[in-house]
C-alpha cells in the first residue's frame, strides 16, 4: 500500500511539473489541414489485413535476428508497438518517414523494414526514412547503444538489413531540425523527449513538414494521464502538450490505438501509441 501511495504522489508531482513547464511556452498556432482523418475502424482494418499479416510473417525472422532489443531494458519501443508501427507504414503505403527519437533503433529498424518490403514490390517508388536524435546514436566514441547492453548500433542494424540507402541519420534537436526542414514527409513518428513543453512545440512544426493526407503518430500517450499498465508508470508530456494545443483551437484529434491484436508489454495488449488526426468537428478540447 505504501508503495502505491508513493507512486500516486510521484505521478501527481510529475504531472504538475509538466503542466507548469508547458504553460510557460508562448502560445503557438498550427494548421491541421494536411492531416489524414482516421477512425478506429480504419485502424482495425489495417491490423487485420491478411496481406500485411503475410508480409509481416515473412520479415519477422529477419527483424528478430537483427533487432535483438529486449523489452523493458533499453527504453526502446516494445516489440508489440514495433509491429504496430510496421503495419501502419506498410498499410498506409508510406513513402517518406520522419522519426524523432532514434534512441537504440528499435522502431527505426522496423520502419526501414516496412519501407524495404514495399520497395521490393515496386522499385519505381522512392522510399526514405530520416531518423533524428539529439545524441549521435552511431558514435563509436560515445557507444550509445553499448550503454544499454546492446552489441549493435542503429546504423549497424540498418546495414545488416541492407537498408542504408533508405535511412538517413541526423544528430540535432527536433525543434532545430523542424525549423530548418524543407522536406515533406508522409508519416511523422514523434518519440523524442516526451516533455509537454517539447511536444507542444513539436506538433505545430511537424504539421508544417507533413505531406497532404499525412500521418502523425505519438508514442507514450497516456489518455487522461492515467497509467496503462500494472506497473503504474506514466509519461504526462504527450497528453498535456496535445491537450493545450486543442484547447487553443488547433483542430487535431487524438486517437489512442488502445489494445492491439498481439502482446505489447507486461502481459497485456495495450499500447501507448496514438494517432494525431484532423478534427472535423471544429470543437476544441
- CATH architectural designation: 3-Layer(aba) Sandwich
Q: What's the domain count?
A: 1
In CATH, the topology is named Rossmann fold
* Radius of gyration from the alpha-carbon trace, in angstroms: 18 Å
* CATH homologous group name: Vaccinia Virus protein VP39
Order of strands across the main sheet: 3-2-1-4-5-7-6
The rounded distance between the terminal residues' Cα atoms is: 35 Å
Low-confidence stretches: none
H/E element string?
Answer: HHHHEHEHEHEHEHEE
Task: Please give a structural write-up.
By secondary structure, the protein is α/β, with parallel strands linked by helices. The chain contains 9 helices and 7 strands. The chain has a 7-stranded mixed β-sheet, sandwiched between helices. Helix 4 runs parallel beside helix 5. The model has no long low-confidence stretch (mean pLDDT 94).
Chart the SSEs and their pairings:
Blueprint: H1 2-23, H2 40-48, H3 50-66, H4 79-91, E1 96-100, H5 106-121, E2 128-133, H6 154-160, E3 167-171, H7 174-180, E4 185-190, H8 196-208, E5 210-218, H9 237-247, E6 252-256, E7 274-278
Parallel strand pairs: 1-2, 1-4, 2-3, 4-5
Antiparallel strand pairs: 5-7, 6-7
Helix pairs in contact: 1-8, 1-9, 4-5, 7-8, 8-9
